[in-house]
């Protein structure tokens, strides 16, 4: 169930617009230890490995060509209703769209990171990539982001509650 600003306007989450194959479901997914997050960017799915070679699968939006994180990371931090600031590279690539947000956007319904964010780290350092909610539900199943992994807000809330800081993440 949605919390915060989404509770009164649950239709904003976009679940009714979602292709049914991107709805959360339990599937067979061997090869990773329980608790590992695996992001299959090519097929636009995020898997949370469970016991007995099963996984909870969610549809995601991923980065445009050349902008996605690849390889291993860990969840180094988690945040509810996170604030957001575009990276310097985002501002450089598209100043018309991003420069006005250089000082950041507070958490809430109009924030691009949505209801929750999992911050991906490597070697103790923030990669600047996130698994996060989105206020653009039509982006699920597409390669449109600046590299982050987008989920519907109610789906990222579900994932957020299931994984602790330190969770292993593999981006294929």
From TrEMBL:
<dbReference type="GO" id="GO:0005576">
    <property type="term" value="C:extracellular region"/>
</dbReference>
<dbReference type="GO" id="GO:0016757">
    <property type="term" value="F:glycosyltransferase activity"/>
</dbReference>
<protein>
    <submittedName>
        <fullName>L,D-transpeptidase</fullName>
    </submittedName>
</protein>
<keyword id="KW-0133">Cell shape</keyword>
<dbReference type="Pfam" id="PF03734">
    <property type="entry name" value="YkuD"/>
</dbReference>
<keyword id="KW-0808">Transferase</keyword>
<dbReference type="GO" id="GO:0008360">
    <property type="term" value="P:regulation of cell shape"/>
</dbReference>
<feature type="active site" description="Proton donor/acceptor">
    <location>
        <position position="132"/>
    </location>
</feature>
<dbReference type="GO" id="GO:0018104">
    <property type="term" value="P:peptidoglycan-protein cross-linking"/>
</dbReference>
<dbReference type="GO" id="GO:0071972">
    <property type="term" value="F:peptidoglycan L,D-transpeptidase activity"/>
</dbReference>
<keyword id="KW-0378">Hydrolase</keyword>
<feature type="active site" description="Nucleophile">
    <location>
        <position position="148"/>
    </location>
</feature>
<keyword id="KW-0573">Peptidoglycan synthesis</keyword>
<feature type="domain" description="L,D-TPase catalytic">
    <location>
        <begin position="35"/>
        <end position="172"/>
    </location>
</feature>
<keyword id="KW-0328">Glycosyltransferase</keyword>
<comment type="similarity">
    <text>Belongs to the YkuD family.</text>
</comment>
<dbReference type="GO" id="GO:0071555">
    <property type="term" value="P:cell wall organization"/>
</dbReference>
<dbReference type="InterPro" id="IPR005490">
    <property type="entry name" value="LD_TPept_cat_dom"/>
</dbReference>
<keyword id="KW-0961">Cell wall biogenesis/degradation</keyword>
<dbReference type="InterPro" id="IPR038063">
    <property type="entry name" value="Transpep_catalytic_dom"/>
</dbReference>
<comment type="pathway">
    <text>Cell wall biogenesis; peptidoglycan biosynthesis.</text>
</comment>
<dbReference type="InterPro" id="IPR050979">
    <property type="entry name" value="LD-transpeptidase"/>
</dbReference>
